[in-house]
Design a protein that fits this description.
The complex is a heterotetramer of chains A (328), B (383), C (349) and D (519). Chain C has 349 residues and is an all-alpha fold. Helices cover 75% and strands 1% of the residues of chain C. Chain C contains 14 helices and two strands; from the N terminus they run αααααααββααααααα. In chain C, strand 1 and strand 2 form a beta hairpin. Classes of the chains: A alpha/beta (328), B mainly alpha (383), C mainly alpha (349), D alpha/beta (519). The complex binds adenosine-5'-triphosphate (ATP) (2 copies) and magnesium ion (2 copies).
């Protein structure tokens, strides 16, 4: 739900000298959609996400968003956050451009706009990038290539046809595939981040391409649906599957061998970094200039890179050996 | 006029059994017509007061603009939809027409078609989409619910074909500012301005012209309407075309407000539009409703949604509020009926002496039965 | 008095069976019409892609259809009584999460208990709809549109940001949908039997016929003493219960459950029911027809994927085919009706 | 004329049937029923004995149907007493009434269009076999035999959608027969039946009477009352007026009791001056419905289209009006051919059609009376494109007055009017358009005798002012009384024509039923 946190004065004064000024800073954390477990992990205090960072710095944080992952559902929420006197917005953009007029008007009012997870490149102060776009694209192809020995037909189960980050990752995947001449990308299908649709399009893939060797699904809903479908003796071990998934969703399939490895970053850390940077920007302790360096609490030192972007780190590869160390 | 209602009585010589108090009865019927609307009005006033108590920002100009922006396109689409529902049909493809129009604007702009031409093309295409719905419903005699579930998928699919994975967002700011700014000098957004203008026109046409009257007649009994010389099929087709054009217009406004054209723009809004129409007091069975109701429903729903956004109310529960509002709004006019039914139920428990258990039936219900004995079966007979 | 005594002097010619036979055949044929379209479709796809009729693909189609056919069973009972239940998707979602979440909350949960919880949730939601419609005298479309939002809202509040993940679900639960009998998913067989029972009930029991009577002419139904409210209430109760149980099956099949389960299913189920020849204004149609409708819609979807139709085209084509199916069905109906009328006039002299 | 106070008033009736009956099977005493401001029943009383056929007559809106609905458990009385077999009773639902042994044939048929005829007849009482399953075979065969006895050629397994009103009425009668009732109430059962079917119904009624059933028979056709009924009760304005043996009363007394004044029942046979041809129908055909229909109607002439129920008369006039499409032929008004399939064009050309089924075709039941009257004349009621509500109100008030409509307020829905008054609203709607060609399909179905005379007079009046009138009626006396010329249809074809001077009921029936063509 909409959670508002504000630190008690005791802890804030001990952790930050400037708590008096931080106290009045309202930060709104606005994920794409509420009720999505990925964002819950990224934002909540319990998991050490964005709200934890905000609380730690003595500011007031509120998580809010619409109930559907669309700009028209997210936009009124952003607008009302501005109306309510936000000093900083932490936004995962449902659309790279649709939010811009609103976000621009926010910045014009001196509000710091930090995007995380999904960027709106032309209308934000800072973007906290979970992993470099190119790295996700290339590393997933590499992971799959290793499993199928660099040859055979592969397909991609994407989220929606218009999802920016998906399309960017797929672009890099196509480039990386040039390295593996014996691997051919035969189809891209869209599961619309709906388990039933994702399942159905994957079924179609299996029927249309009986010789399919591997599937990449760079979306957590898609990979879980595909894994559930492949989790039968008929397909297990015969069709490789990788992509972006959360450890909890994938544990079963990694344990029984349906999936060997997949990647993700730590969403809590992503949120934490974004929340931390947002408060510092609102306090004018840092600017968004390239080369600016700051210490982000438990995560250590970060430097702002080109295009006003901070990179969280390389994507993390989960496999049988490490997956049980994670719980999100 | 006494001489019609009175037939002298042989036994008692007493006059008419039918009291003839024209003056106060016409006032009463006017009142009963407005029960729904006044109910909505009360809710509206309450939510405005509640909103301004809960949040100091509520009544600021900026917030009121936000309120208008977020409900604008749905409100616009709800107007022609209300007319369609009054005639006893439905259009679930409205949001898909919006999405298709948005995609088309994007596609044309992407291909360097001047905006004025692009917009005219989109409106024409909107009309054609509506015409397609209308032809399937009226000429092939298919149930509109089924047809528009089909075109809901079809039009959205065509939008996907047109735009694919492209997102068009490089619209000139002169257009996109329409989507976010208010009309200079007023605190009214462009979309709300369009809504108000349309609402006035619709209100006049629906309530004060023969065409408007024919909509209600069609909704209540389309066979009798046809016998009275009303062109039922043509009227319905006209409404679908109108709905197509206006949804296309809403699509354009939506595109500019979000400065984004993509194929899934506005997906799922059809149920919101239908909710709005029902909240407005338009009977889903046709023949009842008013444009004033639509206006009040837009204001009420917009206010409540916006007010809740300004509080710490969990947004996930917005559905609970919208649904609850919908239920309450239909319940209130029924409250007396339910109460009466309950009383009769108690009365019958006592009165029942020789009868076995059976369905109890109140006079009011019976009245409804007898009055609606035409049974709305026209559809079945025709199909 | 006894009606038999009146019959003694009956001397009229034998009733002309022609018209009645044909008329009732039409209504039977309405299902055959849609069935014919299905066969046509499967045939065409199989010619293009023989693999379409492969065992695995049929299993895929069957298991997808299972969910919709089951929902359509409850929906048909409601629609036949001139009502509609738009809340099925939300009920399915709520039940899917709450029931499968039991495994994450408690250590030892029996499969039966999970199904009972799903059923219970469905019953509560169905009873809510039923009460609002029958006691509240609110049109069902409005009621269930409202409960669609409300139940989904409650679901979202309960789920919060959580989810049920496949890892927490025991094999016994997964096997509900993965086990097979002679190569056919067991759950599909069970559901087919349920649908058969549903059809038999609707045809052969008074309470089933009552639903048709209510849908055909609600006022006349009261006049002959049908307990209208009770019957309509029961239809909603049953529809809710079925949606609740379907939620459990859904959870077993997809393994990962968050608050979006079943979103948008209401329109698909209504589409299946309408395509299956159930009159949207009540009174006619059958459970079997609705199930065939569900099968047709899923087959169309699957065929488009199998045919490798571009992902950008398949939705448009699916929408078009849906319209085509309704139009064809209508065409067959009108044709037969005309034939009857001609027969009658010719045979009447 | 006397007023009932006791219970044992008419032992003669019992004697007639060879049984001793002192208490009525059913008695209503001083029953009152108000619908809001409408006093439907003020002081109604009725006694119904086993083994009698009892007529209930009264003007439209006198409260007959309301009384029936109280017997049926559809309404509950506000005051007064109801005694069933000498017990004070209240029926709280139709089921109560049915279970007590009362079968009601309502004024308007209430069938389930999607269900078979047999199911319609046995709904809620289907014969059952093991496990409470419905025994369809038993049900169908039992309906078949009832139909055989009634001489009805309908298949019990046929879906009842598309049945004509007469066929629907027959199904309702069969339904009542299967109830094994002690009391059978028939609310205007003959209104939609042909002469042959009426005979059959009378036969059934007499058989039931012989079995000791009490029958309450409501009709506006007084000749039926005298032919069939033992006793008659008259109501006016919701009050009991008189009750007596039919042999003791004359038609004049009855009418005076009903209407409260004298009515001149004799039809005038003035010579009308006939002018040029206005309506011209040529070779009109619709495959399988009607065939090669040609005739014309002149200004000032009243032409009747006669024939058996189901002979396709309504279809022909529907086609003329444009509500149906025809396959072949033409319709001309004043030598200008009409576009087919467009009632709007037909109306522009001056045709008006008063349809036979007032509830489905004639009226928007839930719309206000005034709006119904104005519905076909909206174009003439607008000022600057906008409807003038004042003009509309005056317009409908005028016409309500002209037709002596009985209503409480013009803004209440038509559904609150009695059947006959509803018919008047339909008439007002069309007469108010001042048509050149007036087509009336069963114009006086369900209309009381006083009003009927008025309607006839209205038709004469219109003809005199030069309107061409085409009347479709199943009532031969009406046909003979009204028309200058009579066309007879059989099975979709025009089979003959009579000048009024030559026509008799017998000749028309012969032509309408036999296959032999008459010149
Ligand atoms: N449900 C109702 N609500 C209001 N008024 C009603 C209702 N039912 C009947 N009335 C009124 O009660 C009066 C008696 O109506 P009723 O139908 O009993 O007349 P009737 O004698 O059957 O006439 P007809 O011969 O035309 O059928 C009429 O004035 C009618 O308008
Ligand atoms: N919708 C329909 N579907 C099938 N048959 C129909 C339909 N409408 C009418 N019919 C049949 O067409 C024939 C002629 O109809 P109709 O009853 O209108 O004739 P009519 O001569 O006007 O008789 P009436 O005196 O009853 O009006 C009847 O046998 C009727 O059953
Ligand atoms: Mg009556
Ligand atoms: Mg007729």
């Amino acid at each position: 739900g909409t959670t508002t946190t504000s630190s008690s004065s005791g802890t804030s004064s001990s952790s930050q000298g400037s708590s008096a000024s931080a106290k009045n800073i309202k930060v709104f954390v606005i994920p794409k959609q509420l009720g999505n477990s990925y964002f819950t992990t990224a934002d909540s205090v319990k998991s050490g996400g964005a709200l934890a960072a905000i609380q730690q710095l003595g500011a007031t944080g509120t998580e809010t968003s619409g109930s559907a992952s669309t700009p028209s559902s997210q936009l009124p929420v952003i607008q009302s956050a501005i109306t309510q006197g936000a000093k900083a917005l932490v936004v995962s953009a449902t659309d790279p451009t649709a939010l811009c007029p609103t976000l621009n008007s926010a910045m014009a009012k001196g509000i710091a706009v930090v995007t995380y997870d999904s960027d709106a490149p032309t209308c934000r102060t800072l973007f906290v990038n979970q992993a470099s776009t190119s790295e996700i694209g290339t590393s997933e192809v590499d992971l799959l290539a290793k499993e199928i020995h660099g040859q055979g037909q592969i397909a991609i189960v994407s989220a929606s046809a218009s999802a920016t980050n998906q399309n960017q990752w797929i672009g890099y995947m196509k480039q990386e595939l040039k390295k593996y001449p014996k691997m051919s990308l035969v189809s891209i299908v869209y599961g619309n981040d709906n388990p039933a649709t994702a399942t159905q399009v994957t079924q179609g893939l299996l029927q249309q391409y009986p010789n399919l060797k591997g599937i990449i699904s760079p979306t957590t809903v898609g990979i879980a649906a595909a894994a559930a479908l492949l989790d039968t003796p008929q397909y297990r071990g015969k069709i490789a599957l990788t992509g972006l998934g959360t450890p909890n969703e994938m544990k079963k399939y990694v344990a029984d061998g349906t999936v060997q490895a997949f990647e993700l970053w730590n969403p809590a850390n992503l949120g934490y970094l974004a929340g931390y940077a947002a408060v510092l920007l609102a306090q004018h302790k840092i600017t968004n200039k390239e080369g600016t360096t700051f210490a982000a609490g438990k995560l250590g030192k970060y430097t702002i890179g080109p295009n006003h972007t901070i990179l969280l780190g390389p994507p993390y590869v989960f496999n049988k050996a490490n997956i049980n160390n994670f719980n999100f | 006029m006494n001489d019609i209602t009175t037939v002298p009585n042989l036994d008692s010589g007493k006059g008419a059994t039918l009291p003839n108090t024209q003056a106060n009865t016409s006032k009463r019927s006017f009142k009963s017509l407005l029960v729904w609307e006044s109910g909505l009005f009360v809710v509206l006033v309450a939510s405005v007061i509640g909103g301004s108590i809960l949040s100091p920002q509520f009544l600021t100009a900026g917030n009121i603009l936000n309120l208008q922006l977020s409900i604008g396109e749905i409100a616009i689409m709800a107007l022609p939809l209300a007319l369609i529902v009054i005639t006893g049909e439905i259009d679930l493809s409205v949001a898909s027409i919006l999405g298709l129009s948005s995609s088309l604007v994007g596609y044309l702009w992407m291909h360097h078609v001047p905006m004025s031409i692009a917009l005219s093309v989109v409106l024409v295409v909107g009309a054609l989409l509506g015409l397609f719905n209308g032809v399937l419903v009226t000429r092939l005699g298919l149930p509109s619910l089924a047809v528009t579930i089909g075109t809901l998928a079809l039009y959205r699919g065509v939008a996907l074909v047109i735009l694919g994975s492209n997102i068009v967002s490089n619209f000139p700011p002169s257009y996109t500012s329409i989507g976010v700014n208010s009309i200079p000098g007023f605190d009214i957004s462009y979309s709300m301005f369009v809504f108000i203008v349309l609402a006035v026109i619709f209100g006049l046409v629906v309530h004060f012209t023969p065409f408007g009257r024919s909509l209600f007649a069609i909704g209540l009994n389309k066979e009798a309407a046809a016998y009275a010389g009303i062109r039922v099929k043509r009227t319905k087709t006209t409404l679908y075309v109108l709905s197509g054009v206006i949804c296309a217009l809403a699509g354009v406004l939506y595109t500019f407000r979000l400065s984004t054209a993509e194929y899934n723009n506005g997906s799922g809004l059809e149920l919101n539009a239908v909710s709005l129409v029902l909240l407005a007091g338009v009977s889903i069975f046709g023949g009842r409703g008013s444009i004033l109701g639509v206006v009040l429903a837009v204001a009420t729903l917009g206010t409540i949604q916006n007010g809740l956004l300004l509080t710490t109310f969990p947004q996930q529960a917005m559905g609970v509020v919208v649904g609850g509002l919908l239920l309450i709004s239909v319940f209130v006019p029924n409250a007396s009926l339910i109460r009466r039914q309950f009383q009769e139920f108690k009365f019958k428990k006592v009165a029942k002496k020789r009868s076995n258990s059976g369905e109890s039936m109140g006079d009011l219900e019976t009245k409804r039965i007898l009055s609606s004995a035409t049974g709305g079966k026209g559809d079945m007979l025709q199909s | 008095m006894n009606s038999q005594t009146l019959i003694s002097k009956g001397s009229s010619k034998k009733t002309s069976g022609d018209r009645g036979d044909l008329a009732s055949r039409i209504f039977r044929l309405r299902e055959f019409g849609i069935f014919g379209i299905l066969i046509l479709f499967v045939g065409a796809t199989t010619v293009a892609r023989p693999r379409f009729l492969g065992g695995q693909n049929i299993r895929f189609i069957l298991i997808d259809t299972t969910v919709f056919a089951l929902l359509a069973l409850g929906e048909t009972m409601v629609v036949v009584s001139r009502n509609v239940d738009l809340s099925v998707g939300s009920v399915l979602g709520l039940s899917a999460f709450v029931s499968s979440n039991l495994y994450q909350q408690f250590h030892h949960v029996a499969l039966v208990e999970v199904f009972l919880v799903g059923l219970g949730i469905g019953l509560v939601c169905g009873a809510l709809n039923g009460l609002l419609v029958t006691v509240g005298k609110v049109p069902s479309l409005v009621v269930t549109l409202a409960t669609l939002y409300i139940i989904r809202g409650v679901d979202v509040l309960i789920v919060g940001g959580g989810q049920v993940v496949a890892n927490s679900l025991p094999n016994s639960f997964i096997e509900v949908t993965s086990s097979q009998l002679l190569g056919v998913p067991t759950v599909s067989i069970v559901v087919a039997v349920l649908i058969g029972l549903g059809a038999y009930y609707m045809k052969n029991f008074r309470s089933g016929r009552d639903l048709y009577a209510i849908g055909s002419n609600p006022d006349a139904a009261r006049l002959v003493g049908i307990a209208t409210s009770r019957r309509v209430f029961n239809a909603f109760l049953l529809s809710g219960a079925i949606a609740g149980v379907t939620g459990v099956i859904w959870a077993s099949y997809y393994g990962t459950i968050d608050s979006t389960a079943g979103t948008g299913y209401e329109l698909q189920v209504v589409a299946a029911v309408v395509v299956g020849g159930v009159a949207i204004f009540g009174g006619s149609g059958s459970v079997i027809g609705a199930a065939i409708g569900a099968l047709l819609l899923n087959t169309i979807n699957s065929a488009l994927y199998v045919l490798g139709v571009s992902a950008f085209w398949d939705q448009a084509i699916a929408g078009f085919l849906l319209l085509l199916a309704i139009s064809l069905d209508r065409g067959i109906f009108v044709y037969l009706q005309r034939t009857i009328r001609r027969k009658k006039v010719l045979g009447g002299s | 004329m006397y007023y009932h106070r006791g219970t044992s008033t008419l032992p003669e009736v019992g004697k007639n049937n060879g049984t001793h009956m002192v208490t009525p099977t059913l008695a209503l005493k001083h029953v009152r029923k108000y619908f809001g401001a409408v006093h439907a029943l003020e002081d109604a009383s009725l006694e119904l004995f086993a083994g009698e056929i009892h007529a209930l007559v009264g003007e439209n809106g006198a409260g007959k149907s309301t009384l029936v609905k109280i017997l049926a458990g559809l309404h509950q009385k506000d005051a007064g007493e109801m005694l069933f077999e000498n017990f004070e009773t209240t029926f709280t639902s139709p089921k109560d009434s049915i279970d007590s042994g009362i079968a009601v044939i309502y004024q308007e048929p209430t069938l389930f269009p999607d269900l078979t005829i047999a199911e319609n007849i046995y709904m809620e009482r289907q014969p059952r076999r093991s496990f409470n399953r419905i025994d369809y075979e038993e049900m169908n065969s039992s309906v078949s035999s009832i139909f055989a006895s009634l001489g009805v050629a309908l298949d019990p397994r046929q879906v009842s959608i598309g049945l004509s009103i007469a066929e629907q009425q027959l199904v309702e009668i069969a339904k009542a027969l299967t109830l094994n009732a002690k009391v059978v109430v028939m609310d205007e059962p003959t209104a939609a039946l042909s002469a042959k079917e009426v005979e059959r119904l009378f036969h059934i009624a007499k058989t039931l009477k012989a079995q000791g059933v009490a029958i309450l028979f409501i009709s506006h056709r007084l000749e039926e009352v005298f032919r069939l009924c033992d006793r008659v009760t008259v109501m006016r304005d919701g009050r009991f007026v008189m009750s007596d043996l039919t042999e003791n009363v004359s038609e004049e007394t009855l009418v005076r009791a009903m209407v409260g004044r004298d009515v001149d029942l004799s039809e005038r046979s003035e010579q009308r001056s006939v002018h040029e041809v206005v309506l011209e129908v040529e070779r009109l055909s619709e495959e399988g419905v009607f065939n090669d229909i040609s005739f014309s109607v002149r200004a000032g002439e009243v032409v009747a289209l006669s024939g058996l129920v189901g002979s396709g008369r309504s279809e022909v006039v529907g086609a003329i009006f444009g509500i149906r499409r025809y396959d072949y032929g033409s319709v001309k008004v004043n030598s200008t051919q009409l576009k087919k399939g467009s009632p709007a064009r037909a109306m522009e050309a001056g045709i008006a059609l008063v349809p036979e089924d007032r509830r489905q075709q004639g009226l928007v039941m839930e719309m206000a009376i005034s709006r119904n009257i104005a519905l076909a004349s909206l174009a003439s009621l607008k000022r600057f494109g906008v409807l003038s509500s004042k003009a509309e109100k005056n317009f409908s008030k005028d016409w309500a007055l002209k037709l002596r409509l009985k209503y409480s307020k013009l803004t209440s829905p038509v559904s609150t009017l009695s059947g006959g008054n509803q018919q008047k609203v339909v008439l007002a709607k069309w007469l108010s358009r001042s048509p050149k060609v007036l087509i009336v399909d069963e114009p006086t179905r369900g209309i009381d005798i006083g009003t009927k005379v008025e309607v006839h007079r209205l038709i004469f009046e219109l003809a005199r002012t030069g309107v061409a009138v085409l009347v479709v009626s199943s009532e031969l006396p009406e046909v003979l009384a009204l028309s200058d010329r009579i066309l007879v249809m059989r099975e979709g074809s025009l089979v003959g024509e009579f000048e009024r001077s030559q026509a008799t009921e017998e000749k028309i029936i012969a032509l309408a039923t036999t296959t032999k063509a008459v010149a």
